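Entry for the shared binder. Reason: the reviewer on the internal report wants the predicted structure included alongside the sequence.
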Amino acid sequence: MRKFLIVVFMLGLSGCQQPEFYSVQGGEHRFDDFKGRYLVVNYWATWCAPCIREIPELNAFADEFHDRVAVWGVNFDAPEGAEQLRQVQKMQITFPVFALNPSAQLGVVMPEVLPTTLVFDPQGALLATLVGPQTRESLLAVLALE
């Protein structure tokens, strides 16, 4: 019986995967979570007027296409601690925000202009880099969802 429990325990451990990144809102995630869906990564800042105007559009897009698109944010200024969540709440962002800049993990250079939105295809390849505020229509033109 003891050998059986050890085997079950070891099998259980082999199925556990450590998170690759965290969201500001507290979730643990892996890039495999996005498999089969587009990934839209939006770089924003609280002082960026076009970013502020764009966020409601991205919130609505994330809600509407959640089954086919994962929308994530990155705070360009990378504040630490509780300030991260405070800024997400100030911007009224409802989609997840990376706790740390994911550019190295995504194989891209951090943008220099805000807002910048990176679009990755369902296989994880960079499909487009969109500079300036995005709308439902501009994202659909790249993603061809409808």
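Summary line for the report: The mean pLDDT is 90.
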